[in-house]
Design a protein that fits this description.
mainly alpha; 2 helices; 94% helix
């Protein structure tokens, strides 16, 4: 398997993780909205902390995804260079 193929595979896995975290964050935000309406303070604070954590996690995964995208692009360019030289 080429470096490019491996990078693309890793990026697809990371994209799945990014979508999962975004989905979890969306669910937390919806629950937070409900709790605020129901005025359940303790639960709201617990959920608010979880939302902070999910946002940090999402930011981390997005940063990794950006770096991997750059690696995929560079790998593709190298692969293209190699194929035009031959």
């Amino acid at each position: 398997m080429s470096d490019f193929d491996q990078l693309v595979r890793e990026q697809m896995k990371l994209m799945d993780q990014l979508l999962d975290v975004q989905g979890e964050l969306d669910l937390c935000l919806e629950t937070e909205k409900q709790l605020r309406q129901d005025e359940k303070r303790e639960e709201w604070h617990r959920l608010h902390d979880e939302i902070k954590q999910k946002r940090k996690q999402l930011q981390h995964v997005q940063t990794l995804f950006t770096k991997q995208t750059e690696q995929v692009i560079n790998s593709y360019k190298q692969m293209e260079k190699s194929s035009t030289v031959m």
